Amino acid sequence: MPAIRLDRFLADSARRLPDKVALVCGDRRLTYAELDAAADRLASTFAARGAGRGERVVILAENGWEVAVAVFAAAKAGAVASVVNPTTKAEKLGFILRNCGAAALLTQARLLPVAEAALADAPRLACRIVAGATAPAGWLTLDAALAPGAPAPARPGITLDLALLTYTSGSTGVPKGVMMTHANVDAAASSIIEYLGLREDDVILSALPLAFDYGLYQLLVSVRCGATLVQEISFAFPQAVLAKLAQERATCFPLVPTMAAMLLQMRDLAPGAFPHLRMITNTAAALPPAHIARLQALFPATRIFSMYGLTECKRCTYLPPEELARRPGSVGIAIPGTEAWVVREDGSRAAAEEVGELVIRGPHVMQGYWEDAAATARALRPGPYPWERVLHTGDLFRADADGFLYFVGRKDDIIKTRGEKVSPKEVETVLHALPGVREAVVVGVPDAVQGAALKAVVVLAPDATLTARDVIRHCAERLEEVMVPRLVEFRADLPKTETGKVSRRLVAEGA
Question: For 298-315, how does the pLDDT look when each residue is reduced to its tens digit (9 = 90+)?
Answer without folding.
Answer: 999 999 999 999 999 999
